[in-house]
Here is the input.
Amino acid sequence: MEIISNPTQVDIKRAAQALKDGHLVAFPTETVYGLGADATNEKAVSRIYSVKGRPTDHPLIVHISSINQLGKWAVDIPEYAIKLAKEFWPGPMTLILSRSNLAKNFITGSQESIGLRVPSNPIALALLSQFENLGGAGVAAPSANKFGAVSTTTSEAVYEELGQVFSEQDLILNGGSCEIGIESTIIDCTQDYPTILRPGYITLDMVEVATELITNPKAGTQKTKTSGQFKSHYSPAAEVVLGELPGPGEGFIALQYVPTPEGSIRLASPKSTTEFAQTIYGALRLGDSMSLQKIAVLLPEDNGLGVALKDRLDKAVIKPI
Ligand code: TXA
Ligand code: MG
Here is the structure.
């Protein structure tokens, strides 16, 4: 495994070739780091599952370089999904659509739908374009972390999380810290109305304005398998508590204006909700690296990006069984 920092176009071309040859490439996106493999190569995709320790019925998002690639992977695309794609791609949004024949069971977890995203991070976009230039159709990429664990927002965190299980020819592209810091908004577009399956930077209000539709009120009741529907996820080794102040020797994450209770360990002091999202996963990882038993988190207001933060932290609180 090799880490390439500040990759040039030549490095990115090499990484695209590595994908084409069936290797794994971890790369930055504006949300979190992705663990990429050729989405049409069953063997390469099966390595994603084994490296992450992820159940194989759990579908992967396919990343493409532009809206022009949508038709390869999806069929019967509703008009409102096109509106969303035009409005928010490249960007932190994943659309769930009816799959084409290209999207095999090993990508979709045997579901009839496929998750698609055009990321905006320039390294990610260049990698996807180069991969398509080599004849590739799309890059399957879950968050680059062990299943159920905290997502990674730096290449150092990817290395810590997965370095041990990578093989010699796998690559990590180092593009610094992720701009947004939490995973994309996932929108189910397989019904008459959009349904948000996982909240993110693109909010419900933004979806409703862009589509001129009310989102499906039955959110969370469909049978699709999404992280959002697993109770425990994004979970560090430390116990996470919400809305409580920490005791001595415990970790603390809160907005900057909240003072640190005496004897506790401040892990992050973001100035805004945006900064909270950017720093949360790094702060949870820092707590684990210090072997803290408990981390207390005071979340910002539950609106806008705050909705997504609450969704992730509510799941971080629950320990896997
Ligand atoms: O921001 C992101 O979305 C990052 C970056 C790397 O793009 N990716 C990411 O992937 O968070 P992952 O695999 O960690 O989470 C994607 C979620 C999974 O919970 C999966 O179940 C859901 O998307 N998903 C994928 N395809 C789906 C489908 N066809 N129907 C329902 N959910 C789907
Ligand atoms: Mg994930």
In short: Residues 142-143, 151, 227 surround magnesium ion (ligand 2) (CB under 6 Å).
